[in-house]
Specification:
By secondary structure, the protein is an all-alpha fold. It has one domain. Helix content is 81%, strand content 0%. Helix 1 packs antiparallel against helix 2, helix 1 packs parallel to helix 3 and helix 2 packs antiparallel against helix 3. The chain is elongated and about 45 Å long.
Length: 81
């Protein structure tokens, strides 16, 4: 969840500082955002492997929150940048 929150913060900070900048090159902020999203995949996989067998209900709630945060991060990119 921390990586998703960092991605949201990165997008919002970039949008506040530079506005809706449609540069030809993506830039450092875009690459960091992409890394933050991709790095979540193995962490989520480890989380599922560790907790799904013992507490499925809580695991699904955490995964739902995580999916929501990822959707918000991607939505911020579509709206603000």
């Amino acid at each position: 969840m921390v990586l998703s929150i960092l991605a949201i913060g990165l997008v919002l900070t970039h949008a506040m500082v530079l506005g809706r900048d449609r540069a030809a090159d993506e830039g450092t902020a875009a690459h960091v955002f992409q890394l933050l999203l991709v790095l979540q995949v193995p962490i989520i996989a480890l989380f599922i492997r560790r907790w799904f067998g013992s507490d499925r209900h809580r695991t699904m709630r955490v995964l739902g929150v995580q999916a929501g945060l990822i959707a918000i991060a991607i939505g911020c990119v579509l709206l603000f940048v």
